[in-house]
Amino acid sequence: MAGHRTLLWIGDPGSPGPNVVPINDMDVRVLKSLYIPGVTYALGVAAARVAGAHDLLEKNAQKLVQESNAALETYQRQRAAEQAETLWELEGNAALSAWALQLAQDAAAAEDELRTVRSVSEREQTQRLALLEEINLVQTENGSLRQQLRALGKL
After folding, report:
1. Cβ contacts of residue 2 below 8 Å, gap of 6+?
2. Residue 5: inside a domain, yes or no?
3. Key word Coiled coil present in the record (predicted)?
């Protein structure tokens, strides 16, 4: 019997296309030892159902992997879009910060210039006051000298 192949018929005896599976001599001896009338057919049907369920689970697993990959790609695209938006906002904030810093520097420079102008203006005002006092003093002396000259009769 070595090398002899036996085929195992799995399926409903009335079905048009039974599933035929080759089995070796060892499998035949095991099956013969397990043979119980009426149960063997039920085991075959159960085995076929298990195989069908296995195929269905495998298809579902493949579909789940495909859906997961699609969801991951969608998530990655969304994250890339969010990162691009965040980068755009950060660049905008950097530009606004640079502009605000430039305004602050310009304001500080304008304040320094204003202080310089005020300082010059205050010095000019002080010099004017000193000159006015000098003019007043000279006019007072001039008036005094004129009175002296009048008193001497020279005017």
Report:
1. 25
2. no
3. yes
How many domains, the chain? 1
Does residue 60 lie in a domain region?
A: yes
Please provide the DSSP assignment of 134-145 as one string: HHHHHHHHHHHH
Distance CA(102)–CA(115), nearest Å, equals: 20
* pLDDT profile of the chain (155 residues), mean per 10: 49 53 61 63 75 87 93 93 94 95 95 94 94 94 92 78
Find the distance separating the first CA and the last CA of the chain, reported in whole Å.
169
Alpha-carbon distance 145 to 135, whole Å?
15
What CA–CA distance (Å, rounded) separates 116 from 108?
12
Range of the domain at 43: 36-152
Length of the chain: 155
pTM score, whole prediction = 0.41
Tell me how far apart the alpha carbons of residues 60 and 72 are, in angstroms, rounded to a whole number: 18
Within a domain: 73: yes
